[in-house]
Amino acid sequence: MATRSKLVAGNWKMHGSTAQNRDLLDAIVSRTAWLEKASIAVAVPYPYLWQAQSILANTHVSWGAQNVSQYEKGAYTGEVSAAMLVDFGCRYAIVGHSERRALFGEDSHTVALKFRAAQAAGLTPILCIGETLDQRETGVTEQVVAEQLDAVIELTGVNALSSSVLAYEPVWAIGTGKTATPQQAQDVHAFIRSRIAAHDPAVSAKLRVLYGGSVKASNAAELFCMPDIDGGLIGGASLVADEFVAICNAAKN
User: Fold this and answer.
1) The CATH number of the domain where 137 resides is what?
2) Largest interatomic CA distance in the chain
3) Which of the two ends of the chain, N or C, has the fewest CB atoms closer than 10 A to its terminal CB?
4) Which residues pair with 62 in a beta bridge?
């Protein structure tokens, strides 16, 4: 069995200010410097990439963006290209977050194009997949997750997943306070890994699959000890230094 290091990635969403960011980033850097067995990243709003770069350069904490354009350049007002993110030292770009899919109409093909654009520029995409409450209750979780995953595999090939991170996010557990039980999360993670293994067992074994859905200090250790959960994509808790540091601490084991 492949040994996969844990990754804890904070998704700030549309939060932050230059003063708040500095305090939060300084706290994360200083209080997680001893972590050796887990990787840490933050995905910040576009305007603060310069600040993340200036504070986090030459530290153990990586940074990235919460979205990226599928277009390389051109007349796309308001869009931000992968090359621009690289210019600010980004390592990661989140693609396909459930909020982008639900609120901004991004379908699985568009997400796959963003995945490809991010990777072509040298970024590591964090590909988000997951089902809504209605989809879970009607028993189609695996079909929904498979469709979202297959769109990327069909466009880029399964080997492209070797240079990516996946994040399973049950939409019904994001910002609601509800969390999938560790076993519920593990079951979907195992399904994701098995579906990729059907294409290439080696890619599947090495791929980091994060859990994203109301992860907090109180439940992180229980989730992270599941065999197919390789860390977390953290929303609200990533904005509170004590919470985020505690989650990173849970991942170190």
Assistant:
1) 3.20.20.70
2) 48
3) N
4) 41
Element (H, E) at 40: strand 38-44
Catalytic (active-site) positions: 97, 169
Q: Is residue 146 part of a domain?
A: yes
- Give the confidence band of 253 by pLDDT, cuts at 50, 70, 90: confident
Is 1 part of any domain?
no
Q: Express each pLDDT in 112-153 by its tens digit.
A: 999 999 999 999 999 999 999 899 999 999 999 999 999 999
141-156 and 108-120 are packed helices; what angle lies between their axes, rounded to 10 degrees?
A: 40
CA 131 to chain centre: 16
Q: Domain containing 213: what range?
A: 6-251
DSSP alpha helix (H) spans, the chain: 18-31, 49-56, 82-87, 98-104, 108-120, 133-137, 141-156, 182-197, 201-206, 220-224, 241-251
Model pTM score: 0.97
Cβ atoms of 249 and 222 within 8 Å: the answer is no
| Residues 222, 223, 225, 227, CA torsion sign | positive
Nearest residue to 74 via CA among 126, 117, 14, 124: 117
Q: Based on the structure, what is the number of domains in the chain?
A: 1
